[in-house]
Amino acid sequence: MIQIEPDAAAASHRSAIKMRDLRSFLTMAKEAVRLEGEVSVLLATDASVHVLNRDFRRKNKTTDVLSFPAADVNVPGGPKLAGDLAIALGVASRQAEEHGHSLQVEIKILLLHGLLHLAGYDHETDNGQMKRKESALRKQLDLPAGLIQRSNERVVKTAAKKNKARLSRPVKTRSRAS
Fold first, then answer.
1. How far apart are CA 23 and CA 147, in angstroms?
2. Domain range spanning residue 152?
3. At 127, which CATH number?
């Protein structure tokens, strides 16, 4: 199930989001990830995601996607739940613009990333396993660079800029008295 938070449904976002396509993508991506169970997705305001991030992860900032696995919530005999995702539409819109693709494509990238987290992957601790899986699935699902790859590219670019700035500074030399 994918829902748009009422305050997040600005006219520009609403017209850019094709819900039927996102639902179809969510089904395909869940199968590709091999994730079983229901996934609920909230397309939310940046402010709402900020509050969720602060309250559940103790990080007082907005992020693009949050994942809430439901491993301990499943009830015998009830529907199997995989978990919930919350996507900040403002962040997604800015990232889409920054990377030169549509909001629809960015939401799909964020959905895939979130589904991998629901499946138990964690790029902060798994020595590249999630990065490799996300990369393979992006190709399979015809998506451009994913979050982990973009994050790594930013680190490399930032390091290169710092190195260039360091190398371009004049070097102080001591003059020796003759």
1. 20
2. 2-163
3. 3.40.390.30
